[in-house]
## 1
Amino acid sequence: MPPILKLDFTLTQGAFVLDVHETIDASLIALFGPSGAGKTTMLDAIAGLRTPARGEIVVAGRALYSSAQRIDLPPRLRGIGYVPQDVVLFPHMNVRRNIMYGASRGSRVSVERALAILEIEALVDRPVASLSGGERQRVALARALASSPDLLLLDEPLVGVDAALRERILPYLSRVRDELAVPVVYVTHDAADLRRIAEWVLRVDAGSVRGRGTPEAVVSR
Amino acid sequence: MPDESLLRITVFTVLVAAAATVVMLPIGVSLAWLLARRRFRAKALLDTLVTVPLVMPPVATGLILLRLLGARSPLGRALEMAGLEIVFTWKAVLLAMAVMGLPLVVRTVRAGLQQVPPRYEQIAETLGAGPLRVFFTITLPLASRSVVAGAILGFSRALGEFGATIMVAGSIPGRTRTLASAIYAYTETGRDAQAATLVAIAIVVAFAAVWLSNHIADRDSGLGPFDSRSA
């Protein structure tokens, strides 16, 4: 079995340089670090929304980007489910149309599974403007899942979410991994979240990985 | 005036202006998208070309069109050989209206497209949508109000078009005479009553267009506000 994720690339963005050389074999991976460290840029690179200067991005043995092999798949062919920090539900569609947007390439079953796992069946006919913060998070997660991704990217899914809601959403992330077998890369700057769910942590700062390992090992250091 | 009633002039003007708007929209939206979302070398040139008719005297634009399409130009001869007669026909009226209205469509829609956060389009791409699907299901619906506003502006500009029309289409009774050119022609020949009636009609039509555009601008688009979480 190839590793779940190989990130080996350099990306420049103005004066900022993101330099990553990691091979990871865990299914709930956290990127941990202060804002401005390059975590979102890393997700954008995996999703194909930013192009590295050189290197390789490989998911489960499939090269999404490789400067050596001249591969640079467009975002729509990468099989990446992305829930960005600002959630970005399409405001002119209701919940159902949002979730169905990417579902054509997946199976019908996975839409219903996604709805069930995230417990949002009752919301499908609502306009997105009427949703609470936590509901939006779950709808965005369901939309990403319904496209049958090979990898799920979540950018600070719990930022600005109160403690009670956090307790409700965190278990969904573990369920996604366990029941749908979709590996998750999860951006956070909250050490408590890490201990709760992450298997493997990359501590990112100023564009490079400064530490790696289990949550206990990385956060206590 | 059996064959040139005021009603006929009004209907002709409104119909050709509407047709010109139909021509302007796809071209205008495409140009607006290019200018709002793409980077290319000739962008500044294209931007200038599209805007120039807004700034130039319309009569000058009309003269350029006449020279381009007239019987003595290569393009004019080619069109003539293809059996397409444009100058001094209703097609020339439509063309003049479209050229003069296009800058307003492009500028309005471009501003609207620039308001659509690219993040929506990016996320649609990660969900498997190709460029065309992204445009028609995400970008265009989110900018729909600007498209409607641009269409109304372009239509209004077309309704009142005079300078370019008179050069390339003339003011031929029953063939190319529009509200604007008829008002001028009637006043010149001392038919003040008819001119005054047409002015009244023009006021009503203009009033209706402005009212409609304000109504659409004020109406909730159904999108709800772009709140901070989704914008």
## 2
Amino acid sequence: MSSKRIYLDNNATTPVHPEVKKTIIEAMEIFGNPSSMHSFGREARQRVEDARQKVANFIGASPEEMIFVGSGSEANNTVLSIIACSSSLNACIFGERSEILTTKIEHPCIMETAKCLGEKGVGVRFIDVDSRGKIRMDELRQILTDRVRLLSVMMANNEIGTIQDIKTISQMAHDKGILFHTDAVQAVGKIPVNVKDLDVDFLTISGHKIYGPKGIGALYIRKGAPFCPLIRGGHQERGRRAGTENTIGIIAMGKAIEMRTLEMREEEKRLLEFKALLRKGVEDNIPDVRFNGHPADCLPGTLNVSFEGAEGESILLYLDLEGIAVSTGSACASGSLDPSHVLLATGVGAELAHGSIRISMGRETTQEDIEYVLDKLPNVIRKIRDMSTVYKRSYAS
Amino acid sequence: MSEQVEWVYTEKVKDHFMHPRNVLIDDTGYAEDGKGIVGNIKCGDQMIVYIKVDKEKGIITDCKWKTYGCASAIASTSVLSEMVKGMKLDEAYHLSPKHIAKELGGLPEHKIHCSVLGDKALRAAINDYYKRNGQLDKIQKEEARLVCQCMNVTDEEIERAVLEGARTYCELQERTKLGTVCGQCREEAEELMKKYIKTHFGEDLKVCL
């Protein structure tokens, strides 16, 4: 195995920022329960509220519109569950509106929750996307009816990086009196996100995607938006999420956001350059490739590419042996027999979906990393294609 | 650091994955005595096995292969190609996925279907050899073949559903639950339905209502 290790799977998770690490170690001392009235509690409370302020500022929200949760998945589950809320609870009356709309390229925590609600009698529909992963507006327009309660559209896709026009989509929903949620786990901290500008009702953020620790997320709930908690039984987070606050996680997430404020802009430029370099290197050195996702409206550090005649898990593992970490849309790597639902939704055939890898760069990615990948990748693909039953074109040797 | 973390598969799988044996990179000029193809790239794996046979002794003298698939599929075919060299045809014919997995030091549960393809491809190659040599009596009817891996539906069950009246894919789904999870087997199932409907009733497959 190679002694070199290059991490290019930042959409899966990110390494904790060194400054965040320091903050976590320091925050270990703050053990008081933020709900306690004594000095220990007040100290913890102050740090939690400082973090809330930072997160809120970063996305243009007010602190009282933010709650901390255990993960992006929890935030998404919370929002979708509002619709199944008993009408006897305050602010959860929805009368005739009982449908949820979402897309075919959401994260499983949206899709599975939506399907589960569907089994309980809630109307659920999944909107198609085009070949670049953009939501089909004409179709959306048609199904935004008076029966719809909530529309949930992911801001930036984790697999292909495609960024949706959230402002327009949110506007369309609001014009019909429909609540709008966006899962912005992949967007916040990578591209500018402002809840007031986008005019969304709910927005999901995750800590570990932005160089914070795992097990912490945040949910924006627009002032006045209907809400009911997923986790009940405590007054924490203004009664919107029970359970003693994860103070260390919250403080760390505040720091991670603060570091994003300082680093994001410059990093975005750098990653776009690296991506162009990577894309060109792949195009120039490997025949029969297909780039997935949108060429322009895409996360700066995400590149998803399919290789004809090469299976993704093999690519991933040969790269792993070279010390390069990427992910794949192949079924083989997921433990199921299905390739990526996102790629299939964009109309990429099963074969190319099986042959896809996602390279997701981050703040620690360097130009040398990209050059190393470009040095190794062509040989890996060639080796796999030489063995392949389906790749007919022979390489000139 | 990476050396201290266990790899996803056994060392034997890793070795065969890193250094695959007996790959037939270019099949032009390789005069095989039998050739078998199984699998479907839409499902993520496909294998071709080529064998050479000592006709006097009934022994496999050489085995080459090509595989499109994951690491366990590649390693399965690679280890298989080593196992069968020098093996009698009868013996090779009865190799099972268990033998291959054992030789590899084990495979994760959800990867067993990758090794299933290896022994199938080998049997297909041996059958092809028998066919080419007019030994049709030696070809054993393949056991039921799994078509829908999610719901465990075989080609025999599809045939039975057709005999019991299924004429559309949807009717087949109702009877067998085939294709109700990932849906990838639809094309293959429809092809089989077409074949069975044609054979038994001389009709065509109908579209779902």
